Amino acid sequence: MKWLYLLKRRENSLPVVLGLVDGILTAMLLTARKILGYGTPVDSGIALKVAIYAFATAGFVFYIGRYAELRSQLVHAAAQLNLRKKGKLATTYLGRTVLHEAVREAFISGGSSFVSALLPLSLAALFPFIPQLSILVSIFLLGLLGFVIGRAVRGSSLLWSVNLVLGGLFMTVLGFGLHIM
Fold first, then answer.
1. Which end of the chain has fewer CB within 10 Å, C or N?
2. Whether pTM exceeds 0.90
3. Which runs of consecutive H residues, i.e. helices, occur in the chain?
């Protein structure tokens, strides 16, 4: 239930959505061949490794992007206020607040990515005799997430769902072709 609360809070929606999408796509890209039954099946160790990888990459990339965005807003505000020293606001309490906000959101994004990568891979580990189950659940989750995003932005839920599903299918095919794991 805490994930739904995080998603409902407007300031958390971007890191949660990016993390959820990133985790599913990362899992599909890295392990598509294993999930589909080629080579050794996915086990709990692989599932955990990929989920940690998803956490680290999503969290770090989100942190860098968000911190750069927020800090550039402070620099722009300082210029608008005609402050003599460039970047002065970025070195004040506001700069530290921006840093903390970026770190907090990075953990939210990374945690969302961890959970959404671990879920389909755990299914693949628990049910190795039904390899397609993990792919189907991942595609379903992407479609559901697309529906929710479409509703949240007052756009076409169907279009959002279809695009995320197509993205998931593309990453699965790409991962199958690349044979990363």
1. N
2. no
3. 2-8, 10-35, 44-80, 93-126, 131-152, 157-178
